[in-house]
Amino acid sequence: MGYTMKKIAVINNKGGVGKSTVSVQIAHGLALKGFKILLIDLDGQNDSSMFLGFTQDDYKNTFFDLINNRNCCTIEECIISARENLDLLPSMHIEQINSQFHRISRIDLVLNELLAGLESLRYDYVIIDCGPQRTKINDAVLCYVDNIVLPVQVEAASVRAIGNIYEYLADLRLDPDMISLVIPNMFDQRTNDSKENLEFLKEFFSNSNILSEPIHRRIKLTEAGKLGKTVFEFDNVAANQFSLVVERLIG
Ligand SMILES: Nc1ncnc2c1ncn2[C@@H]1O[C@H](COP(=O)(O)OP(=O)(O)OP(=O)(O)O)[C@@H](O)[C@H]1O
Ligand SMILES: [Mg+2]
Predict the structure, then answer these.
(1) Cα Rg, the chain, nearest whole Å
(2) I want to staple 15 with a disulfide (CB 3.0 to 4.6 A). Which of 112, 114, 115, 132 is the partner?
(3) What range(s) does the AAA domain occupy (predicted)?
(4) What confidence tens digit (pLDDT) does each residue in 144-197 have?
(5) Cβ atoms within 10 Å, residue 56
């Protein structure tokens, strides 16, 4: 079998729905299954790096240096080992990167060029945590990846906003079937609102088989992030929920 590096964006134009959480947990979940994973943090808040326990003091070089210091560092010099089988490519100066991307004519090719060095590093999956807005960086990410994982918060406003990602893909002339997994997040069994919105999602995606089992709302998930631990190191209940999601990704 030939080697292929699967490229996945975790994206949703809505903020605070769990993109960074999902990125980190699926990255570690896949790593624990023995896959070689690179998580690229392309959100300005550095949440996924933080959820893995890293602060800016730990970064030597970042994604920014791939663009601006071409002579001084290779992609390998920008990558941090985060866990066994799990590496992290952090970012800084995200606004500056975005402005630079505005001046690039082939935004659809920019990441293929900047990340060309990854092919020889033999990752099974590259997972990109994205910021919430429509930005040039996110345009570039969507053109680069094969698939999209879409976390959706199980509440009315988020569920109603699902159409936004389809519009975004249409504007970029990308295939909506890129969305390979939709993850209902922060599901709360105790509220009717949560149940109704989960039902809506099931209905909405009933023909496509891309909806995963929900991730429940759990304080321990937030705590894990603050401590720089993944659920696989901190909370069996959430870990089991994310394991189901990981199984879906492996397919
Ligand atoms: N299932 C959950 N249960 C409880 N808390 C959660 C859950 N999922 C995410 N959170 C918490 O909600 C907050 C937002 O999550 P996260 O940072 O992953 O969202 P995001 O979509 O990446 O946000 P942003 O748009 O700001 O990048 C975090 O504090 C996180 O710990
Ligand atoms: Mg985030």
Answers:
(1) 17
(2) 132
(3) 5-172
(4) 999 999 999 999 999 999 999 999 999 999 999 999 999 999 999 999 999 999
(5) 11
25 CB within 6 A, ligand 1: no
How confident is residue 1, by pLDDT bands cut at 50, 70 and 90? Answer: low
Domains of the chain, earliest start first: 6-250 (3.40.50.300)
Phi and psi, residue 102, nearest 5°? -65, -25
The residue length of the chain stands at 251
Secondary element (H or E) of residue 192? helix 192-204
How many angstroms is it from 106 CA to the middle of ligand 1? Answer: 32
pLDDT of 70 above 80: no
Gap between the Cα atoms of 197 and 162, Å rounded: 12
**pLDDT tens, 73-107?**
899 999 999 999 999 999 999 999 999 999 999 99
* 8, 135 Cβ separation under 8 angstroms: no
- Which amino acid residue places its CA nearest to atom 29 of ligand 1? 222
Is any atom of ligand 1 closer than 6 Å to the C-beta of 7?
A: no
Tell me which residue of 251, 248, 5 sits closest to 125, measured CA to CA: 5
- Tokens representing residue 105 in the block: 């004519």
Helix/strand/coil percent split, the chain, to 5: 45, 15, 35
How far is residue 80's CA from residue 77's CA, in Å, rounded to a whole number?
A: 8
**pLDDT at residue 20, as a whole number:** 98
